[in-house]
Design brief:
The chain contains three helices and three strands. By secondary structure, it is mostly helical.
């Protein structure tokens, strides 16, 4: 089993903001209508997700972060052992498993 993180980019024309505040939804609608250089279409945003899920070359890649279709370094905070441990502990508590299970940081 592999597990990777994927950043599709800023794709304002999705329904992912449906639970957001009215102000946030209106702001996203505005961004969706403007030809901004940092926004992506649904198809463009999906390319990275689809590649990470289906590319045979990535079959044995795990613990990676993908952006714009390629593995790249994630935010510096993601390499901070204290922050990673806290995230692991909180996540384990939320799903009801022991946080001392199989925490093995992957650089």
């Amino acid at each position: 089993m592999t597990a990777n993180a994927v950043d599709p980019g800023f794709v304002p024309s999705t329904a992912l903001s449906r639970g957001a505040s009215l102000r946030s939804r209106l702001t996203l609608r505005l961004f969706a209508r403007l030809p901004l250089p940092f926004t992506k279409s649904v198809e463009e945003g999906a390319r990275t997700v689809i590649r990470a899920a289906t590319d045979p070359e990535l079959e044995d890649v795990t613990g990676a972060y993908f952006s714009d279709g390629e593995p790249t370094r994630s935010a510096p905070e993601s390499y901070d052992e204290r922050i990673r441990r806290r995230l692991w502990d909180v996540s384990a508590g939320l799903v009801g498993v022991s946080p001392d299970g199989a925490f093995e940081p992957n650089e």
